[in-house]
Amino acid sequence: MVRVYNHPKLDELVLSQVLFALSDPIRLDIIKKLLCVDKMNSLDLVPNIPKSTLTHHTKTLREAGLTYTQPEGRNCWISIRKETFEKKYPELMLLLLKE
């Protein structure tokens, strides 16, 4: 069975959802990690938390449009949608890096 994830389009991004996704310290930390790499295995994003909790956080980030999830076998590779956000919310990523 192939997993398929929905990712919002540029015109579907809503600032309140983005800010909500970033309001959680764990999710904000995930975004900061992803800003420093090309992509990361979801299981390496936050060690020592239950997989169900990690899934909740990555889903929230994906549904807000912050991240892209690419399934590959038993792994999920997570990357940040930098280009999308630079078009919709210029300099948001720079603000996050300063945090």
TrEMBL record:
Domain of life, source organism = Bacteria
CDD domains annotated for this entry?
A: HTH_ARSR (cd00090)
The molecular function GO annotations come to: DNA-binding transcription factor activity
Could you tell me which residue ranges the HTH arsR-type domain spans?
7-99
Which SMART domains does the annotation name?
HTH_ARSR
| Name assigned to this protein | HTH arsR-type domain-containing protein
The organism is Acinetobacter nectaris CIP 110549
Starting at the broadest rank, the lineage of the source organism is:
Bacteria, Pseudomonadati, Pseudomonadota, Gammaproteobacteria, Moraxellales
